[in-house]
Amino acid sequence: MYLKHFFALITASLLLVSCDDNTSTLGMDMIPAADLIAKTYKTYDVKTSSYAVGDSVLSRTSTSYFGQYTDPITGSTVKSDFLSQYNCPINKLKNEILGDTAHTVNIVFNVSQFVGDSLAPLSLEVYELDSLLDPNADYYTNIDPSKFVKKDAKPVGSIRFSAKNFVKNLEIINIPIDRAIGDDIIAGLKKDPSLAEPSKWLKSGLRGSKGFYFKLCSGDGAMYYFSDSQMNVTYRYHDTEADKDSISLLDFEGSEEVVQASRFATSNIKSLIDDDSATYLKCPAGIFTMAEIPLDSISANDTINSASIKFIRYNDDAETNSKIEKKYRLGIPENVLLVRYDEYKNGFFESYKLNDNVTSYLASFSSTKNAYEFSDISRLITTMIQEKKSGKASENYNKVLIIPVAIETTGGSGSYSKVVKINHDFSMKSTRLVGGKDGGVKIELIYSKFIR
Question: Which sequence spans correspond to the domains of the chain?
Answer without folding.
Answer: 41-52+269-451, 77-266
